[in-house]
Design goal:
Protein name: Dipeptidylpeptidase IV N-terminal domain-containing protein
CATH architecture of the domain at 403-726: 6 Propeller
Pfam families: PD40
InterPro entries: 6-blade_b-propeller_TolB-like, WD40
Helix content: under 10%
Number of helices: 5
CATH topology of the domain at 403-726: Neuraminidase
CATH superfamily of the domain at 403-726: TolB, C-terminal domain
Number of strands: 54
Low-confidence stretches: 716-760
Length: 762
Amino acid sequence: MAESRGSIASFATYRPPLPVDIFSCAVPPSPGTREQKLTDGKSYNCNGRPIPAPALKLLIEKKPELASECGGATAEDVDRGRATGLVFVSEREDGLETLHVALRFNGEVNVVSLADIYGADAFGGMRMEDSACFGGGFAPEADHSIIYVSTKKQVEKRRAPWTVVYRTSLRTGETERLTPEGQYDLSPAVSPSGKRVAVANFRWNRWTGEIEHLKTDIVVMNVDRKAQGGKLNRKRLIKDGGWPSWGSDNVIFFHRGIEMQDPSSGKVTTTWRVFRYDLNTEQTEAVTPEDINAMTPAAISETKVVVATIRRRTNQMSEQREVAQYRHIEIFDFANPNQQAVKITQNIGPKADYYNPFVLDGGNSIGYHRTRTEDIIKKQDGKSDVPRTFSKLQSPHNDVAQFRVSGVFPTFSTDGSKLAFVDNEFKAVWLADKQGLRVVWERSKTNTVFSTVWNQNPEKDILYVCVGPPFSASSPMEIYAIFNVSGSSGGRPEVRRLTDGGYNNAFPSSNPEGTKIVFRSTRDHMHGTTDGTRHKNLYIMQDAHAGETVGDGSVTRLTDGEWTDTQCQWSPRGDWIVFSSTRDKPANAPLLDHGVDIGYFAVYLVMAADPNVVVRVVTSAAPSAGPGSVAGHVNHPVFSPDGRSIAFTADLSAVSAEPISMPTFLHSVRPYGDIFSVDIDRDNIQKNKDIKKFHRLTHSRYEYSTPAWTQFATDDHNAQWNMLVTTGRATADFKPSCPYMQADGGDSWHMTGHMILPRKCC
């Protein structure tokens, strides 16, 4: 086994703090209607769809334990509807979002992964799987198959999705790719006959940086090319649409974002509506009204469709939401446009969000997923805690482990004995070490603390934090040091401000000796630019203990230019500094694209002793693409402890799911994307120019951000909130109060579904 190179920890920015799970309820619901949980309640589970009886029997035939360990369900039980099946996405296997099957019989539920049934050839490796559906219809003699999305095959092109639709035969396990090479598909749905599949196909075979409203079209093709003369017969039916669902073999429902620009402010807003397309007449007609948001349709018939709605959309988390501002499940009837929608979940839990409905029992029941609010722990003081986990993730490298941290900006001490992070309210600094878990510093206001980082000299026991509004370059921000943070020297921690002058100072990092700090600042660009932004460069604080607030504290400039240099880290050997920068952004580049910052961030190295030596290491798009090819986000770079690699968060793999199917946030769903790494030459800086080969470390529908790389590694896969100490043992649970919960006035608490985490932090 290869010698360990430590572990990479990262934060899944928009992943709900409470687990999500799959439920159903009868139609029509009434006050007091009880839900039925459709899984075993383990892990995070979402995006469920029912399994047709012929397909379920084949799955049991391939994996008898599926039934024998679930009350001994038989084929007759399946035929008579006593045993039912569900396919869904679960995170129960090392954090990978992969497909699983649940058999439900006599109140028991047994869950197995498709990898357990068909092996790693079809369902193995680093990947994300999603949107499973079944081909072959209901005829027992048909060649039944499962159609799904997977990101298992690497795409060399940068800023391109890895989402490909595959078909796996349930009888043989034979797998074929349905998405042509060089194209990218999402959200497959099979027609009732089981012969055709509709997908959301990325227009122009590329992702152009859009966040919420993807540029996708509805494409239809054959499920089984062998039955159709070896041809898929792909045909583009609908321009600008996503999340298709068949009402019959001649009708497709889909959602579409309608963008409108305010003439006075210029602000672009998007309203989501569900439409119906008739394949015979080629007519597209609206199903849901224009004054509400409706998305993720699931057809009940040619005219009836169940959708998720937000009747009054808001992006404000600070205010208590009304029922109309939550995401709920409703049924609309195209044939009776004047008939009121049938409200499903409002009668179950009006102040909760419900996602991605699906149809059960011919429309007599509706399924969906929501957060498991019953997992909230009520404390004696009346406040609520959310069970947190520090989860080990599967890694593509045998010598590098991965973890997901439930705190923001995780940072490890050099010797791996201490972990610090900021809570989700950006208010308190938490420390985990051999003494357990505790708050070592807390501010009175939220959204004021971020970017924790340890002094590289572990003997100094110093933790740096940034204080101020973290996402406003025009606002002052200061760097603080928490001395004796773990109390190893006795006494209480001492907090001292290191910067002075009202500049925007952030992202400190010390040299290996712990005597100096590199950081970013606006101090020489205080007048700003015509668009209101302020440039930022890197500076070195010559005294990491006194800072610039005591005596003759000296600060020297490291980089100089009218751009943004930020997110810097000093190398373990002290010779280089890695940082993210927009210095190669074209002069005529637009400030915004799709309503958000277009980025143009790339990762660079600079010699600490000679700032004239700067090398661009990795960009979001291939440099050979020409001017403007660095558009996008490659951010938060960190060195490996041995200095042989750099990990970062980036949009190199675009998006892996339709963002509107996920929780709605203040800004975007995936501003950066996943965690990646590149290997570097640690002896010759020039050999690291525009590295071509990169490694994708996470595959997720959520954003993974702010990686930290420690020399520490653990073999504990499942312990709840591992305390990263040298023994590798878990000593406590991390249960900070969840900032995404709001009381409804009674004893229950609900997910707000809206987060204040911003689109980018630079």
